[in-house]
Amino acid sequence: MINKMSLLAILTVLSLAISAHAGDLTGHLTAGGEYTNLDNNSFKSGEYNGIYSNGLNVIGNADLHYSKGNFYTDVIGRNLGIDNRDVDLSLGIYGGYGMKLSYSETPHLISNTATTLYTNAGSDNLLLPTGFVAGSTTTAMAAVLNANKRDYDLRVDRKNLSAALRMPLKVGDFELLTLDLKYDRDTRKGTKDIAGTLGVNGGTTSAVILPEPVDYQTNDFTVGLSFASECFYAKAEYFNSQFLNRYESLTWESPLTSYNTNNATYPTVARTSLPPDNGYQRYSLTGGINLPYSTRITFVGERGIMEQDQTLLPYSINPLSTITTPLPRNSSQAKLETSHIVTTFTTRPVDEFSFTAKYRFYETVNKTPKSLFQYVKNDLPTTQAALTDDFALYNLPIDYIQNKVDLEAAYSFFKGNILKFGYAFDQISRDYREYGETRENIWKAGLNSQIAPELKANVNYSFGQRKGVGDYKESNIYYNYHTTDYINTVGTTIRFDNNPSLRRFDLANRDKNKIAANLHFSPVQTATLGLYYSYDNDNYKNSPLGLKEKKMQSLTADINVLLKENLNVFGYYTLDDTKALQSDRYFQGFAIATQAFDSTRDWSIDTTEKVHTFGVGVDYTFYEDLINIDANYSYSRSSINYDFTTGSSLSAALPVPKDRTSLHSLDFTTRYKYTEKFTFGLGYAYEQYSSYNWSNANVNPASTDITQVITLIGPSRGYKANKALFFITYNIN
């Protein structure tokens, strides 16, 4: 990792070198320290900056601009003393070539309460301690768990390096062409969590949460050539992205033997696949032309190719598994081609009227071969699926075609009032889905009004109605997914995997209402008040089972007052309210013929999430503009309530506690302008975070708390953080 002071030192040397030459150098350099005191070493305190323990951290920032004639150089560095640092270097000629180099680091702390049994966490071949004795349940191996578990932090660090070049090309005496080149390299390394599943079905399955090694690299390259004139522009571009994963799979020794002794025991060693290497290419052409009467036509055309040809893992690595039929092919041979076209026509023939028409076409052509896979479930010591088994399955190369037309007209009347109307039609066709086609009609209207010089208001409304064409058929998937041999063993009335009454929300018939309104009031020049409201309601009233309704509302009020020329105060409040109602029916495979059609086995969950956010702040400059005080306070509280109901044939639902999260943040900074060159600063910040998630609040990692699951991550810790900072800024002018 780059030393925490090295980037700041490089920027300082660079600025001094630049200033040694004739030209204009402006900007500032800031250096100092921030001491953090935490009452609890919670990873949440430094989830994306890496600071989750007591200590002193370096403050380093730079913002430098140099110019000489038409030549310029910009150097920007942020957070150079901590783990989420980034640096940008730009140079070039005004109106000519330009080059930019960027480097950034971003940590993601996933957990520092993780506990694992594996001695070599972070490897792709996880090993249990020597002499470890596996057990059938966590309860049966309590002593073994306590004796062998060890702490392990989960964290993924991202580093990004990019370089871009922009170069005008001359055609005769005209510089109408521009060449753009860009390279971007993104790496992610560390460890996160993944579930390792063992068993055959819901009644016999156990799991161990595993530390998954992460070593990704993504290389992106873009080359573009653009042409621009007074009335026409066009750009051709090629983009290539290659994703590489050092680890193709994760193998682990199983700490569990069998949950149900009537079934085959779990394997001693199991394996699961990890994200495969893959590539993506895109060819694109964009353009636009200006015509008379303020008319403009734009065009976007893209062709994409996604490919993944990773070697397929064998059905099982268990030597006791019986494999009689080989894999249908050695590698995935996955290929997806996409086509994307967007054309937009806009015109304003008169000042009072404008019209926009847009057409979008998007298509995927899935060229992955459709093949039959006769699985062995979870590396169990069993025979692979026979043609008459429910887990002898075909992969489904799903295709997708969208045609969408969007029309909008706007009319200006009186002064500062604009009335808008619009209509859109969205048609989507899909292969291997319950609906082969859906159609949605969307009507829109809006008003932008200047009610008075000091009062402005906007309101927009839209209503969309989506319907499937024909009948909703789970059989569209079922008959393509399973073998004919298996289907023939199933009664004609129960040939489904999901309940036929269940509707997937992305396909189901839906009415959608959206409202967005805002009010901006300035009673005097020094004060403004804003009110913002949005409402989004998805109603799936014709879905017997599945998502029934989802409502989202947001209300924001903010105020900004300039009390004096040097004293500004502000405040805001936001309420986000989301509600969702979902229903389903509980049935088991052995009783599917009766239970799947018994409405007394229905259950539902009504989820309500509310987020309150409040903030105030002040910015005050005094003492002949030499001293500045900047203070801010914010408070956010969220809660999620779950309300379960069950039918008369099911056990009564137990109450579920609310999920709760709160965050207090206070920061205070004062700056003293000692000279034109030097500014000294002191600051203080306070954070208090707390969180309760009912699903893991009382679950200790790698413990007996869950009989069939060996967990990895413990509950999220709250924290209180006090931070004191000091810094010096050197101003260059």
Features:
733 residues; mainly beta; 26-stranded antiparallel barrel; 5 helices; globular
What would the average pLDDT be, to the nearest integer? 93
Number of helices: 5
For the largest beta-sheet, the strand count, sense and barrel status come to:
26 strands, antiparallel, barrel
The low-confidence parts are none
Percentage beta strand: over 45%
| Radius of gyration, whole Å | 31 Å
Distance between the termini: 33 Å
Structural class: mainly beta
Count of β-strands: 35
How would you explain this protein's 3D organization?
The protein is mainly beta. The chain contains five helices and 35 strands. It has a 26-stranded antiparallel barrel. It is globular, with a radius of gyration of 31 Å.
In short:
The chain has helices spanning 6-19, 142-148, 475-481, 484-487, 592-595; strands at 24-38, 55-68, 71-78, 86-93, 98-111, 115-116, 125-126, 150-151, 154-171, 174-198, 206-228, 232-245, 249-253, 269-273, 278-291, 295-308, 334-350, 353-366, 372-374, 392-394, 400-413, 417-430, 437-452, 455-468, 502-503, 510-524, 527-539, 545-564, 567-585, 602-622, 627-646, 659-673, 678-692, 709-710, 719-732. By secondary structure, the chain is mostly beta strands.
Map the helices and strands.
Blueprint: H1 6-19, E1 24-38, E2 55-68, E3 71-78, E4 86-93, E5 98-111, E6 115-116, E7 125-126, H2 142-148, E8 150-151, E9 154-171, E10 174-198, E11 206-228, E12 232-245, E13 249-253, E14 269-273, E15 278-291, E16 295-308, E17 334-350, E18 353-366, E19 372-374, E20 392-394, E21 400-413, E22 417-430, E23 437-452, E24 455-468, H3 475-481, H4 484-487, E25 502-503, E26 510-524, E27 527-539, E28 545-564, E29 567-585, H5 592-595, E30 602-622, E31 627-646, E32 659-673, E33 678-692, E34 709-710, E35 719-732
